[in-house]
Amino acid sequence: MFINYNLPGTIDKVRLDQVIEDEAANAAADSVHLADNVKHITSTERTAWNAKADKTYIDNQLALKANSTDVNSLATAKADVSYVDTKIASLASGSPKAVYATLADLQAAFPTGDTNIYLVTADGNWYYWNSSAWVSGGVYQATSIADNSITPNALVTTQIPNKKTLASYTTISGTTSLYILNQILQKGLVNVVGNFIAGTQTIVLLRRNGNNLNFTVVATKQFTAVSGINTLITNFLATGDGTEYIGVIGAGIKYSTTGGNGWFEVPNFNTSSTSVGSTDNSSTTYDFGIYPTYQDVGIIDKINQVLPDVYTPVVKPFSKYDRTPGTTSIYIPVEPLKSGYLKVVLNSASAVTGKLYVLQKNGSNYTVKFVQSYSLTSGQNTLDTGYLCAGDGTEYIGFSGIPIYYNSAGGTGFFEKSETNNYKVGNIITSPSQSSTTIDFAIYYQYTSLIKSKLAQAIRTLIDQQHNFTDYIVVAKSGGDCTTVTEATAKLTNDTTVIYLMPGIYDGEAIDGFHTNYALNIVGMDRDLCIIQNSLASYETPPLEITRGVLKNVTVKALNDGTHVPSGASLWGTYAVHADWNSSSGHSLVFENCKLISYWNAAIGIGMQKDFDLIFRNCEMYTYSDYDAGNNVGLKNGAVLLHNNQGDAYVGDNQNVTLDNCRIYGNHGNSLRVEAMSDEISKMYIRAINTVTYTDALKHNSVSVSATKAGTQWQNTCNVFLKGESFGNSSPILNAQ
Q1: Contact, 325 vs 404, CB < 8 A?
Q2: Distance in Å from the first CA to the final CA of the chain
Q3: Is pLDDT larger for residue 639 or for residue 153?
Q4: Contact 585, 559 (CB under 8 A)
């Protein structure tokens, strides 16, 4: 799902640098596969299953059949192995047989049970029949969350100011009229919940024109609704200015004849219309069977504070300009344009028609990129060119036929060229002369930014993935809540606050996520523009230490600046990211669309913990190290160093690693190094999907696996398992048989 702010074009680094004005020199999920909390049980794992047998079930059976042969047998077997075997056989691939909305629906479908398992979406649990009732087996997720499967009502960022009990609405509306809910929209991303008739439904965002009963159509979106209550995700942006309303036309919607404020009806409405004529609100007591929900209200406010729509580097007080130049030449002020859609503000001495150019400098010549005639009034004029400036320092404004006021001092001067050639786009203006180096024209520039749309898309995508963040801290080089991620980390008070990272190079960061009491959820606006780095070369102080939370759309670099050398207890050199701390146990850590780079060691060093889910999705990990810390230890670690728990209090089962559509590159030896430490109790499960592992020396055969204790599991280890769904990887040993 994406927001459309109706801002066209693309976005690049230079233009973003200019938006973050004060630091221009420095500026440069969960659709994630959720780890299985249900084990795909094999015969080699059955002993562990038996140890976790359903004791409550056994106790109940003993109580019911205290003297039976079956109970005596069960008591002897202790865990009813044959019963567990039957259940394991029924699980097959581990996938549920079918999906039901509620437990009540499942109970109604199979009142006497069967041998399959089923998924109930109301709580996300899988259920099995224990001979007398359907019993939850815990949370189940075998695949990613489907697109649009998380409704706004499930998200903590959603506000529902007027939720209705839609099940009690029974009267059905017509199908050709547009019905406009008599309720002014609040500010936020608007979605609609309604009790619909199955079929095509069109939701319309409208703006009321004053106190009149007519409206302008702002946006429309069409849906195929099912019979009953639907959440239609429109992502309409309401400004909350008191003029916006929601309307619906389609297969029909249910309503009540009492208890409401009625609606405005537009008979025989054409869904391609851009305006709505006279309407009436004759049904003033009817309660229409829809209501709006609002998302991201606070985030939108923060975006508006940090990223204004219009960026004006300099505003000139036109009252001090009192001289006018001639109008027969092209004048080119010596001031390069910045990035964004260009508006020109100028002070004209008279009402005239003149030309405005955008010129690209190449040596002593200028190429015409844009030319437009404008009719000006005497005094201040704002000319919206619609031209997208690159902001690369080569583009300049030119004007002719416009008597712009000027001062003879205080400026950077101008170049001048006769306009006898009537220049067009593509023409070259050769070698204009610099007639002055001090004149200052009464002209300045404004730039409409595209950055807001880009950030809003990232936020929208993040929230769609149901990370359930409840608060946010904005980190920006200027204008945010903090100027560094380290500072933002110190402000955390819970696990559900997200740190939004604005574009920039955040140099010198050494983020200690090992000793914070809370999860680190860091989300950048763009991976290539949001960079966390340091040059400390210290194993103990990498750019980022993290144990749980989310890292998204961020690049993390451990740099070698040629002056620092490895220091501290270990001389390995530093990872870009270190994820090896006991507080990971019982939690998850998600990397999505990230780039991790180290010039000293592995891009990331990972130590797993029991009951820990580590997920990499669409990530790239690189090591460019030539550093030898003795015995080639820095080189042989590869780009990703991964080991299971080494035997402390957090050793145990369910150490889950997912590599989904990743790129792992090392310039020496291995790309991915897996170390199987400890013994059988420290079990690690690896799932790799469509992941490329490569080094210059070993090509795609660059995955190494070593074990402190040999066994019969994956790659002759005793405690590392490759999940059966591993496929599509460049290294053969990462693909399940």
Answers
A1: yes
A2: 36
A3: 639
A4: no
Whether 525 has a pLDDT exceeding 90, the answer reads no
Question: What CA–CA distance (Å, rounded) separates 370 from 358?
Answer: 5
Vertex 700: Cα angle to 698 and 701 (nearest 5): 60
Order of strands, sheet of 497-501, starting from the edge strand that comes earlier in the sequence? 471-475, 497-501, 520-524, 549-552, 588-592, 612-617, 655-660, 684-689, 720-722
Q: State CA 108 to chain mean position distance.
A: 39
Q: What is the pLDDT of residues 718-737, one digit of tens each?
A: 999 999 889 899 999 999 87
Distance of CA 520 to CAs 244, 305, 499, Å? 38, 24, 8
Angle of helix 297-306 versus helix 451-464 axis, rounded to 10:
150
Q: How far apart are CA 287 and CA 261, in angstroms?
A: 6
Q: Measured between alpha carbons, how far is 351 from 135 in angstroms, rounded to an integer?
A: 82
The structure tokens listed for 679 are 């013994």
Task: Let me know if 722 is exposed, middle or buried by CB neighbors in 10 A (0-12, 13-18, 19+).
Answer: buried
Residues contacting residue 348 through CB under 8 Å, at least 6 positions apart: 354, 376, 377, 378, 379, 381, 402, 403, 404, 405
Alpha helices in 541-686 (DSSP H): 633-636
Contact 639, 602 (CB under 8 A): yes
Tokens 């790309």 belong to residue: 671
- The continuous run of DSSP H or E covering 471 comes out as strand 471-475
Q: Measure the CA–CA gap between 304 and 237, rounded to whole angstroms.
A: 13
Mean pLDDT of 255-273: 86
Please give the single-letter amino acid code of residue 86: T
Those residues whose C-beta lies under 8 Å from the C-beta of residue 666, and which sit 6 or more positions away, are 622, 623, 638, 639, 694, 695, 702
DSSP state letters, 421-436: T---TT-EE---EEEE
pLDDT tops 80 at residue 34: no
Nearest to 558 by CA among 633, 490, 622: 622
Closest CA relative to residue 585, chosen from 612, 562, 621, 608 = 612
Half-sphere exposure of 627 (CA within 13 A, CB side): 27
Q: Are 687 and 656 in contact (CB under 8 A)?
A: yes
* Dihedral in degrees, nearest 10, Cα atoms 50, 52, 57, 62: 60
Question: Taking the CA of residue 219 as centre, how many other CA atoms within 13 Å lie in the half-sphere pointing to its CB?
Answer: 14
Residue 446 to residues 5, 342, 397, Cα–Cα distance (Å): 19, 6, 12
Rg over alpha carbons for the chain, rounded to the nearest Å, is: 32
Spatial separation of the C-alpha atoms in residues 586 and 575, rounded to whole Å? 24
DSSP for residue 583: G
Q: Is the pLDDT of residue 243 over 70?
A: yes
Of the candidates 646, 661, 663, 737, the one whose C-alpha atom is nearest the C-alpha of residue 700 is 663
Is the pTM above the cut of 0.85? no
d(CA 593, CA 457): 14
- Cα–Cα distance for residue pair 550/530, rounded to 1 Å: 15
Spatial CA neighbour of 734 closest among 668, 635, 662, 683: 662
Token pair of 581 as six digits: 């701390």
At 581-617, the pLDDT tens digits run 999 999 999 999 999 999 988 999 999 999 999 999 9
Structure token digits, residue 543: 């750019």
Residue from 715, 237, 173, 710 nearest 457 by CA: 237
Which pLDDT value is given to residue 117?
80
Q: At 219, list the tokens.
A: 């946006």
